[in-house]
Amino acid sequence: MNFVCPFKDSLWRYRFSIITPTYNRVDLITRTYESLCTQTFQEFEWIVIDDGSTDGTRDLVLSWNARFPIRYFWKPNGGLHTALNVGTYLAKGEFVTQVDSDDYCVPHALERLDYLWRQIPNPERFSHLVGLCRNEDGVILGTPLSSDYIDIFKLRNALSLVDADRWGIVRTDIARQFPYPVFKNERFVMPGLIHNRILSRYAVRYFNEALLLVRHTPGHMSSVDLRWSSPKGAALYHAELAMHDVPLKMRLKSALNALRFSALAAGRTLMSH
Q1: Do residues 152 and 26 both lie within one domain?
Q2: pLDDT tens, 209-226?
Q3: Residue 169 belongs to domain spanning
Q4: In three state form, how does the secondary structure of 37-48 look?
Q5: Contact 208/149 with Cβ under 8 angstroms?
Q6: What is the rounded distance in angstroms from the CA atom of residue 131 to the CA atom of residue 151?
Q7: What is the pLDDT of residues 74-97, one digit of tens each?
């Protein structure tokens, strides 16, 4: 499917575009919707990218009459990364953020994101504003920061913060410059591939508040290792990481993983002929 970017960067209609990729989650997405209805900050749109659902998701989403715009798009099943590509290029908001169909935001999430971004003195240098996540019992998923916030200007420093589930916003103009690559017959690309590309050029502000509640339900992206079913994407991620300015041990490990996944991809290509 070919989508045309509807707005130039200077004509943002909203502060935020919330992108929810979904696939057969009709029994879960209502909680996500309800959390958006309670937001104290209303300058946002919700973009639901239905990645080929057959369970009535369309009828449910189109039945809602919310105070904020809901834009529903159905596409053939292609994986999370393809849904995010579509959502990002359709976004009319200055910032995009991903809220999965089994997660939900606290009521003041967007209000805090708007306020905290405005506290950055040189925002043109920054791509992301990123906070923490918690589960439904209120437990922070990972290790909090040692201060209220920290600004990261190098990828090697950002990689030291992967010990926690994090969520936030990214500038739409930057996100559009870094779409996910799409490989035939592969339905997964590691999110770190795009994050690493962006963080190699822009700064990120991390802050110490948990604004997203995460439910790791069956089928959730983090509940299963999908790299082995999508070896080309995994090989690309590791090949690029091996070339970045990161600790030597990490580069060597990634180089070995790049070889492993490249060999797996090559073997599958031979078998298909």
Answers
A1: yes
A2: 999 999 877 655 544 467
A3: 11-218
A4: HCCCCCCEEEEE
A5: yes
A6: 12
A7: 999 999 999 999 999 999 999 999
